[in-house]
Each structure stands twice: as structure tokens, then as C-alpha cells.
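Chapter review: from sequence to fold.
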Amino acid sequence: MRKSVKFSPEVRERAVRMVFEHRGEYESQWAAVVSIAGKIGSTPQTLLNWVRQHERDTGLREGPSTAEAQRVKELEREVRELRKANEILKLS
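The C-alpha cell string follows.
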């Protein structure tokens, strides 16, 4: 099984920027993604996920932004902790 490679935020931002800057040089966005992914050492699907998230963050695409998704995770964690606390109190 392959170990996943972690890319720095700078590499991710640059790769996404490259897709948007060079989109016109390719027949489709996917062709740009495939070409650029090979250059940075990621899979095309990974780079496409980054591009899609950037589009959501900037309002170009429907869906939750990174900040909204993070907030939901924090609230879900808080709910779990409160439920555990309630269970402990019920047992007392």
C-alpha cells in the first residue's frame, strides 16, 4: 500500500494557480490538471480536488467552503463531547 504524500499549502496553492493560469493552453480543465499534476508529483484526482475546493472557497462553485467545513467538524466534536458528558452525568 502506498503512503500518501503530504503537500505543503504553498505547493497546493501554486498548483491550483497554475491550473487557472494555464487553462487556456489546454483543451479542457482536466487536461490542464493531468499535465500539472504530473509536474508536481501528485495524482490528477488530488489536484482536481484542490481545484474544486478552491472554487468553492472563492464562490465559483456551490458547496461548503473550507472554513465552513472546519466549523462543522468543530461543532460535531463539541456535540460528541457534550453527549459523553451527559452520559457520565446520567450514570452518577
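Two observations follow directly from the output. The chain has two domains: 1-61, 64-92. Residues 5 and 42 are 8 Å apart (CA to CA).
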